[in-house]
What we know:
Rossmann fold, globular, 11 helices
Amino acid sequence: MIAKFKETTVFYTDTGKGSCVVLLHGFLENSSMWTSLTKEISKRNRVVCIDLLGHGKTGCTGYIHTMEEMAEAVKAVLKKVKIRRAIFIGHSMGGYVSLAFAKKYPKNVKGICLMNSTTMADSEERKKLRKRANNMAKENYETLVTMSISNLFAEHMRTKLSKEIEKVRKQALQTPVRGYIAASEGMCLRSNEEKPLQTIEKRLLITGKQDPILNYDTVVKEAKRTHTPLVELPNGHMSHLEATIELHKALANFIKPR
Length: 258
């Protein structure tokens, strides 16, 4: 299904009935990453999965996709399907978009789970790495994506999950170079969003102890600083593939009414 946003269309799926859960994928991913989780939680909830700008079947709107603009695209989908409030679960970049949505539309957010994600803005070093990658994307995109995807997984999982990694790589290569650069530029522009997270009563951080992207100790400190419950998993940045069962249990517990 599609919703209109600016000069493009936003692809989404809408499954199940009940209290709504919105699933937002990460950088170089698309809504298909949530297939197995959707099967589980749609038994009791309405689940909306959205392809963010420049990813999956959703087009680009410009050469920089800020997290705020992506949040506006999400809002366009929710307006079309007549959803007023929802719980948001965002993986990596999807968490950044969830925070931008909560800041812009706080009354529409029932809860937020940052899965392998953070409220913190990019460090200067991280911004430089993104800029360097953007330049490489213009010259040797396939090599860049191949390296990037492998580096998301804990080292000891790379052989065990080789088939899954190859599948993720192929899906990532479907993201156009323009979509890659626009999202990367948008992530560079993020500000610290600890305060918006703390305004949400129902909140959760999920981290991998061996996440190569987000430092585990830093996330633990972030959870304490923001008084946010933390679920620690024994994996890298890709919890939905590296620790599927544990992740599903944690998310089911987060979603259920209290």
